[in-house]
Amino acid sequence: MSKILIVAAHPDDEVLGCGGSLARLTKQGTEVHVTFMADGVFSRNKSSPTQLNKRKLAAEKARKILGYQRCYFLDFPDNQMDQVPLLVIVQKLEALIKKYQPEIIFTHFHGDLNVDHRITQQAVMTACRPAPGCSVKKIYGFEIPSSTEWATPGDSPFCPTFFMDISSFLHKKIKALTAYSMEMREPPHARSLCNVEFLARNRGHAMGIKAAEAFVVYRHVQ
Ligand SMILES: [Zn+2]
Predict the structure, then answer these.
(1) What are the distances in angstroms from CA 101 to CA 24, 91, 97?
(2) Mean pLDDT of the chain
(3) Percent of the chain topping pLDDT 70
(4) 40 alpha carbon to ligand 1 midpoint, in Å?
(5) What is the 111 CA–ligand 1 centroid distance (Å)?
(6) 3-class SS at 70?
């Protein structure tokens, strides 16, 4: 079965963006790995290594809830990935892709407000140039509540065309987000458990199903 790699900027993006799909695909027996590009901890808090460890422990806790096989941390600086040459980011990602040989990649939407999200997407597209021998046949972009919908209106709207039915896995997505309780906010904040559920219901109902995660298709070679 196809191997899948999730390329997320920060620990929590993998759950917000495609946690339900991750749980579903893993349950179906697909091998799924996740790589986190930045550590998710603001530089002002880095004097405390426990903040970093807490975020990594949360990612590990979420991994166990969703059931996927493995996660990697590339440790680029949080919210400052634009300070790192793109080539350096691409090279690290290329090495991982060459070793793991995924066929499918889920990553960020190119129009997000968050700079790390945008650079992560750009790095994926560069690292997965479809030259002969490239293992990656499918690339999908997910939405992140509090980043995708907060981008400049009209700039680059998120128009999904691929929907994953997560009706039986929404509860796992919500449970996995409890591992990241320090990142979640109370409603009516966009990054609240309440809004995550609203969004999944809305994406699902738009397609006549109970709950879904929505993606833009960057590549689909069959
Ligand atoms: Zn993020």
Answers:
(1) 21, 15, 5
(2) 95
(3) 96
(4) 7
(5) 13
(6) strand
What is the distance in A from the centroid of ligand 1 to the CA of 221? 27
| Mean pLDDT for the stretch of residues 128-145 | 97
Contacts of 53 (CB under 8 A, 6+ apart): none
Separation of CA 184 and ligand 1 centre (Å): 12
Amino acid identity of residue 4, one-letter, is I
pLDDT band at 155 (very low <50, low <70, confident <90, very high): confident
Interval between CA 14 and ligand 1 midpoint (Å): 9
pLDDT digits 0-9 by tens, 31-76: 999 999 998 777 655 556 677 788 999 999 999 999 999 999 999 9
Token pair listed for 80: 């400052």
**pLDDT of res. 48:** 66
Amino acid identity at 180: Y
Q: How far apart are CA 6 and CA 22, in angstroms?
A: 9
Q: What pLDDT is stored for residue 47 in this prediction?
A: 55
The token pair that represents 41 in the structure block: 């901890």
Output the CA 158–ligand 1 centroid distance in Å.
16
List the one residue out of 221, 37, 215, 9 whose CA is nearest residue 131.
221
Burial of 11-49, coded b for 16+ CB within 10 Å and e otherwise, reads: bbbbbbbbbbbbbbbbeeebbbbbbbbbbbbeeeeeeee
